[in-house]
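Reminder to self: tokens first, then the designed residues, so the page reads top to bottom the way the pipeline ran.
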């Protein structure tokens, strides 16, 4: 499978990544991407930028090195109520929001607590996608969460970084997640979770996993820019006029 959009990338602003936005854009161009999302960690994550970093993304050009720039965030799930750590007014100004569990923000607990939090995130409408769900530290009820995600048009991320060591034990869980998403018609997004420019657009492990479960390409929003942009409009985002020709 070939994917032309990377929906999960970090810059030095995240505090534990090592490349600039310009370096990421250059790598995205070299790897043949049409679009990539800027998704630095939201403020509750240690070392993350102030909320102004996200409010000010309007200054970013829509294209760098010929690749479209999608303004976004990787927000932290804060509690079982499904709250995330950005003011709704800032969230509404962004194009793209991933919601993820991170151990420094949400201490791992029971399967029931994780499931409750994810279901409330989905129902809140604040997030377009759930990030790196394969993390074994945050077990959850696959059936109820993925079914709810399909019903509410929330994407399930297959995170390439999780499949090559960043969250050990994710591989088999991600395969099960993808297989269940296929069964219930949930849609998938693919993110490199790059913390260094050379990984932007690297989907090697994610592609292999999706091929292994024979996942339908039509359910992967990153296989064509129009598929991804149409998804954003389905979710009520304003049309990004600069991307009309994609």
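Designed residues (246 positions):
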């Amino acid at each position: 499978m070939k994917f032309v959009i990377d929906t999960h990338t970090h810059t030095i602003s995240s505090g534990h990544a090592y490349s600039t936005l310009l370096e990421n854009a250059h790598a995205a161009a070299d790897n043949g991407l049409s679009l990539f999302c800027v998704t630095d960690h939201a403020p509750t994550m240690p070392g993350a930028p102030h909320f102004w970093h996200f409010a000010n993304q309007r200054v970013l050009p829509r294209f760098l090195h010929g690749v479209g720039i999608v303004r976004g965030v990787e927000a932290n799930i804060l509690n079982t109520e499904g709250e995330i750590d950005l003011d709704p007014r800032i969230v509404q100004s962004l194009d793209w929001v991933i919601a993820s569990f991170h151990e420094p923000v949400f201490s791992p607990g029971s399967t029931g607590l994780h499931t409750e939090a994810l279901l409330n995130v989905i129902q809140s409408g604040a997030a377009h996608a759930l990030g790196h769900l394969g993390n074994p530290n945050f077990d959850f009820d696959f059936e109820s969460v993925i079914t709810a995600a399909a019903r509410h048009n929330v994407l399930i991320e297959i995170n390439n970084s999780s499949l090559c060591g960043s969250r050990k034990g994710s591989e088999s869980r991600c395969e099960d997640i993808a297989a269940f998403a296929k069964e219930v018609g949930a849609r998938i997004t693919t993110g490199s979770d790059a913390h260094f420019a050379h990984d932007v657009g690297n989907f090697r492990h994610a592609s292999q996993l999706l091929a292994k479960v024979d996942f339908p390409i039509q359910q992967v929003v990153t296989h064509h820019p129009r598929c991804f942009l149409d998804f954003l409009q389905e979710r009520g985002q304003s049309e990004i006029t600069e991307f009309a020709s994609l």
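The two ends are 20 Å apart (CA to CA).
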